[in-house]
UniProtKB/TrEMBL annotation:
GO CC annotations on file: cytosol
Gene source species: Dicentrarchus labrax (European seabass)
Protein name: Phenylethanolamine N-methyltransferase
Annotated InterPro entries: NNMT_TEMT_trans (IPR000940), SAM-dependent_MTases_sf (IPR029063)
Gene3D superfamilies: Vaccinia Virus protein VP39
Length: 271
């Protein structure tokens, strides 16, 4: 295991990689076909949306406040949750990503991706009419806040009610901002402090990934995770695993923007 000072420099090095993150390119790489092909059942994005839809609608996830950890420039991860929770907080480390999300929230035409097919797809899963979905999402997103999962207190101290959030969702964040497995596990513990006991964590992430491109020439290192490591880290950080699902990337989803081999979805409860 790394010593304290090496870990601090590893975290600082990760922050430096993110200074060149390009939201428009990242959206293009990961949130357009083939990775977001709604005609294909084996495309990554429909798989993620189906996992989230199921997890939010099993009856055990409830409360008022949902917090998305490391939202990036994306919204797909809260499209099901926005029907269950009356308040949704989005968070990201980078101002460029928070700005991208604000463009959508303010509907000012400045977005780098049209989320309409995503909203339509989730409405289909929910058996709901599409016309109110965007308005509903804009109504429940109450803020877009800065976050650093490497701090024991990742959000500003007054950002959440003292009881904590009722549910956290986090997608492709912790493994792609941590210098090593120990930092990943610590970050899981840090975000757990934002969650009330008994609250749920819905965690999606990359398996076997050692890097991804956050923009042209912006190669960001990732902690390559196995399913067993995800389960161990959750346990070590004070969560009880409810379910782990795994998706294996078909060959034609390996489009040269990362070396990910699979995706995990974990539903867990804070002890
Ligand atoms: C791979 S992106 C994931 C974005 C989005 N959640 C998704 O599903 O595509 C990783 C995100 O983590 C954010 N990030 C970087 N350093 C972070 C930190 N220390 N704490 C929290 N988020 C961080 C980045 O700005 C980026 O938006």
């Amino acid at each position: 295991m790394l010593s304290g000072s090496n870990t601090a420099s590893g975290v600082a090095a990760m922050a430096a990689y993110y200074q060149r993150f390009d939201p428009a390119a990242y959206l293009q790489y990961n949130y357009t076909p083939p990775r977001a092909d709604f005609e294909r059942k084996d495309s990554i994005v429909p798989w993620k949306l189906a996992c989230l839809h199921r997890a939010f609608n099993e009856g055990d996830v409830s409360g008022e406040l949902l917090v998305d950890i490391g939202s990036g420039p994306t919204l797909y991860q809260v499209l099901s949750g926005c029907e269950v929770f009356s308040k949704v907080l989005l968070t990201d480390f980078l101002e460029v990503n928070r700005e991208e999300l604000k463009h959508w929230l303010q509907d000012d035409g400045g977005c780098n991706l049209d989320w309409t097919p995503y909203l339509q797809h989730v409405c289909k899963l929910e058996g709901r009419r599409y016309d109110q979905k965007a308005a509903k999402l804009r109504q429940v997103i109450t803020d877009i806040l800065p976050i650093d999962v490497h701090r024991p207190q990742p959000l500003a101290h007054d950002a959440l009610p003292s009881a904590g959030a009722d549910c956290l969702v986090s997608c492709f964040c912790l493994e792609s901002v941590s210098p090593d497995l120990a930092a990943f596990t610590r970050a899981l513990g840090h975000i757990g402090r934002l969650l009330r006991p008994g609250g749920h964590l819905l965690l999606i992430g990359a398996l076997g990934e050692s890097y991804y491109f956050g923009g042209p020439g912006v190669k960001i290192p990732v902690v390559p995770l196995t399913e067993a490591q995800v389960c161990d880290s959750l346990k070590e950080s004070g969560y009880t695993l409810i379910r782990l699902e795994v998706y294996t990337l078909p060959q034609d989803m390996r489009v040269g923007v990362d070396d990910v081999t699979g995706v995990f979805f974990a539903k867990a409860r804070k002890d």
